[in-house]
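Cross-check.
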Amino acid sequence: MTDKFEEANLDHQRSSSDTLLPEGVYLQHALWNFDKGGELQDLLHSLKYNRLPGVGVDLGRQLGKSLKANQWFKDLLLNKDAEVVLIPVPLHWRKRRKRGYNQAYYIAKGVAEVMKVSMVGKSDVLRKKNTKTQTGFTLQKRKKNMEEAFSVANAEAVKHKICVIIDDVFTTGATTFELASTIRKEEREEILIATVAQA
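Predicted model, tokenized:
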């Protein structure tokens, strides 16, 4: 299924290092444009709610290949002598228990496989606030909902490293930007955001 989708959407890769990114975020990269009501939306919905870890890993592999080929990312690696670490956007423990798993973790697993890099441990970066589902929220409500939602429990996991935040969809950036803001407080090198889709 993902092979078929890749062929149809290979020309929709996006990345931006200089527009609308908060301080400390070097790059925001997405593999595909989000097709509302289309095949990608169905696939990501199934990934999130139907417990399809294999699909997550497969999508992560595609994202990893795309990120490796990104010129901004290549330039960063040339100029920074630092280890790359992946940070899947964490779920609050209540939501993870209800859903059964975290889809961002499996996407990150696929990225890690392709890029030969490590992920933070599951208890290193946490979601301490059980946020509401953000569907239908305005940008301001999303930002308010995500305020102080995350914490870094193990600073050594990100210290002096290039931190790549991994998620399924980048919409307004409220979630990933808040996580980036939390990581920024630590002694990290650079922060990047990589997602399967961008709405």
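Residues 2-198 form a domain with the Rossmann fold fold (CATH 3.40.50.2020). The longest strand covers residues 25-33. Passed to J.P. for a second look.
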